[in-house]
Amino acid sequence: MKKRTYSYYKTAFEGQEKPFAYVDLDYFDQNMKDILKRANHKKIRIASKSVRCVALLRRILAYNEQYQGLMCFTATEAVWLSQQGFDDLLVAYPTFQVKHIEAVAQEIQKGKKIYLMTDRVEHLQQINAVGASLKVKIPICMDLDVSSTYPGLHFGVYRSSLSTLEAVEGYLKELSNYPFVHLRALMGYEAQIAGVGNEMPNQGMKNKLIHFLQKRSIREIRARRGQAIQLVEAAVGPLDFVNGGGTGSIEATVAEDGVTEVAVGSGFYTPTLFDHYKHFQHWPAAGYAVEVVRQPKADVYTCLGGGYVASGPLGMDKLPKPFLPEGCKLYPNEMAGEVQTPIQYTGTEPLKIGDPIFFRHSKAGELCERFNTLLLLKGGKVVEQSPTYRGAGKCFL
């Protein structure tokens, strides 16, 4: 696979109205292939939050039967995708609003598989009440906390309350009180492995510390998740699936015998947050272009728009990064702005007013909230213009 040049993308997108977002399908398809190899024959559930484009979700599922099912970020998204023909849908975060649970239950009544995430008794109570009112048993997934806690450091994310085996046992004892919930799956998302780069530039000591903590955390996760699976299956029988992982932790997660599938999302687009991992490197398949509209100084070009900043803790790593032409960087006093983004340019490609500057987003699917369509590029030509969730009129969070 060849590294892209500025002239390659400039020629390929000639005449396109700017700003625009794009996906390079040659890179995207190679990422799909490489992710399959990393997963070592285990099922891969697609994290829809990181894709947010129905056409591309279909493309992944059609690529290989190892890609099965979607991990959605809200119940309303899962219901909408079910109505688009998708099935085997795991809602990754708890659903509490009654009308959202009702909508899920109505899809289940049609024969669809949708699993709601739970870790609290309050979740069980609410889901059970809706199930009882509609006379439908609703499949649920137990969310196991797999963070690690060290003196003065919580290594992971604050996600589930089920952080001990005692908590899991207490949760399982409650199940008999709620006949309209059906525990069918278990999930444990190791964010501290899957979403934390361990080969960041100019951070040698920090990289070593992160790598050490990750290796130690992986050992703890394997023990905790393995014991939790035993407890759950002893209580309810064989599960439909045990889900774990993410783009950054595929190898560690699939090595666990009890895990039946790994979740992957960001790896298909590969945003900048996934550039710096020691054990893998995927291709930068997604980006966006903004237009040069000013040149206030010889080495400064000002673009219209471009300030698409990612969520999470504030930091330079959440800013979009100029990608092409080489030699571009954000101007330190302004960075990426909603209406204008100046860049400092020291490259050799000649730039003029009206030219595109190509950027990459920090995260994967969040870019789709800014654009109605994605230009799909194949072999150096735009072959399709596909709606994002936003372009389909949907905004789920």
Present the secondary structure layout:
Elements (H helix, E strand, L loop, with lengths): L5 H7 L7 E5 H15 L3 E5 L6 H10 L3 E6 L2 H9 L5 E6 L3 H12 L4 E5 L2 H14 L3 E6 L4 E3 L2 E3 L9 H10 L6 E8 L2 H4 L9 H33 L4 E4 L5 H5 L6 E4 L1 H4 L16 E12 L2 E5 L16 E4 L3 E3 L9 E6 L10 E5 L12 E6 L2 E7 L10
Parallel strand pairs: 1-18, 2-3, 2-11, 3-4, 4-5, 5-6, 6-9, 9-10, 10-11
Antiparallel strand pairs: 1-12, 7-8, 12-13, 12-17, 13-16, 14-17, 15-16, 18-19
Organism: uncultured Aureispira sp
Pfam families: Ala_racemase_N
GO molecular function: D-serine ammonia-lyase activity; L-gulonolactone oxidase activity
Report on the structure:
- Helices cover 31% and strands 26% of the residues.
- It has 397 residues and is an alpha/beta fold.
- The chain folds into two domains: 25-268, Alanine racemase (TIM Barrel), CATH 3.20.20.10; 286-387, no CATH class.
- The strands form three sheets. Strands 1, 12, 13, 14, 15, 16, 17, 18 and 19 form a nine-stranded mixed beta sheet that branches. It has an eight-stranded parallel barrel with strand order 2-3-4-5-6-9-10-11, surrounded by six helices.
- Helix 4 (75-83) packs parallel to helix 5, helix 5 (98-109) packs across helix 6 (121-134) and helix 7 runs parallel beside helix 9.
